[in-house]
Design goal:
388 residues; mainly alpha; two-stranded antiparallel ribbon; 52% helix
Length: 388
């Protein structure tokens, strides 16, 4: 053994943390290199897999904004946690319906500085269906009653109902909740949400009664209508399920954390079927994004706007720029009379049966007396489908 060899072995032993004096230096070096390469490859693939599993999505964005205590130990919340555990498919079904809207609603809550748990209220109110209506008169994603919707600026006309317009109604709902919190409850969001459900008068009366009994006047000590007694516990339990879906057997659908739709000006009245043609998308997709319109057309005014899929925005605007004014004719309205058929109505207006079906969302040819149909002009019908 010469001095140089021993010296190299000592250096390897010190830097590697092992004393390998019995191995030739070249073997040690090769083994160390192979080990390092193996560790490097292992670290790379592990990091890649971890990154893949933790890719940001709309659900993680939602969870990042959770600010309410979910009160898991509260018996009223625990009862709903048990219910959700027993009905995971219910959560998954509504979550699927929320896909077009959840990220955007979460963003609006961020801009209003409100807890993102509120984005889950439409799970309870409407099943995240903006077309939902209630026999009692409530309508839309946020289930506004007519008077409350009017007070919050959600207009209702023969052409449009703002309660079904997700963009307008979401802004109105957040403003309403914030107003209740600031006006009556010193910023207490749970009381504001209770007022959203039952009305501030009902909640305030319950608080006064609690004070007279000598009880605290926070939400948990109030005696409210049965629906409102369940309203907050149900929301908090759902928030906990969304926070830890695996614990409750829930498989949430993938919702990317990216823009789903864009709001664009139509620069005048436009039928939804023509708008779909300009955007190059299925008319049913455009209808689903614009549930506030009642006549398969924008409102007959110059400042009309619609939602289109984000990926179709540029195509829509490019085609809109070349659209002749003659194709913007406001749709005709026809009320079905005894003896009418779709083919006869189509012949009367000089359009095809298919055009009438598309404008009115009809799957077949069945119509009923008194039914109001939207019928396109002849020029519009002839030009529909020309752009692809």
């Amino acid at each position: 053994m010469n001095f140089r060899t021993r010296r190299c072995r000592i250096v390897v032993g010190l830097t590697g943390g092992l004393l390998l004096s019995t191995l030739p230096f070249t073997a040690v070096a090769k083994e160390a290199s192979a080990t390092a390469n193996s560790a490097s490859r292992h670290s790379f693939w592990s990091a890649l897999a971890l990154q893949s599993r933790r890719a940001p999505d709309a659900w993680s964005r939602l969870r990042n904004g959770f600010r309410l205590s979910h009160e898991n130990a509260n018996p009223r919340v625990a009862a709903w946690l048990d219910w959700y555990r027993a009905h995971p498919r219910h959560v998954e079904k509504v979550a699927a319906q929320a896909k077009p809207w959840l990220r955007w609603v979460t963003q609006q809550l961020e801009s209003h500085r409100l807890p993102s748990e509120i984005a889950l209220l439409p799970f309870i109110e409407s099943g995240y269906d903006p077309t939902a209506t209630n026999p009692g008169g409530a309508a839309g994603l946020w289930q506004f009653m007519p008077a409350t919707g009017d007070a919050m600026g959600l207009s209702r006309t023969a052409w449009y109902d703002g309660r079904h317009d997700v963009v307008a109604a979401t802004d109105a709902a957040m403003n309403y909740i914030q107003q209740q919190a600031d006006r009556w409850y010193d910023g207490d969001i749970l009381l504001a949400l209770a007022a959203y459900n039952a009305g501030a008068g009902t909640v305030n009366a319950a608080r006064e009664a609690a004070a007279n009994r000598g009880d605290p006047i926070d939400y948990w000590h109030l005696r409210l209508p049965a629906e409102t007694m369940d309203y907050i516990p149900r929301l908090l339990a759902l928030s906990e399920v969304i926070a830890e879906p695996e614990q409750y057997g829930v498989a949430l659908p993938s919702i990317p954390d990216k823009v789903q739709f864009a709001q664009v000006d139509t620069q005048g009245p436009l039928t939804l079927s023509m708008a779909a043609d300009l955007a190059g998308v299925d008319p049913q997709i455009l209808r689903a994004l614009n549930p506030g319109f009642k006549r398969a057309s924008t409102r007959p005014r110059d400042d009309a706007s619609i939602l289109v899929p984000a990926a179709a925005k540029q195509r829509f605007l490019a085609n809109l720029a070349t659209l002749p004014d003659s194709e913007r004719t406001v749709l005709n309205r026809y009320v079905v009379r005894r003896g009418d058929t779709l083919s006869a109505i189509a012949k009367h207006f000089g359009v095809s049966v298919g055009e009438i079906q598309r404008e009115n969302g009809l799957d077949g040819s069945t119509i009923r007396i008194g039914q109001a149909l939207t019928v396109p002009s002849m020029a519009l019908a002839q030009n529909s489908g020309a752009r692809r």
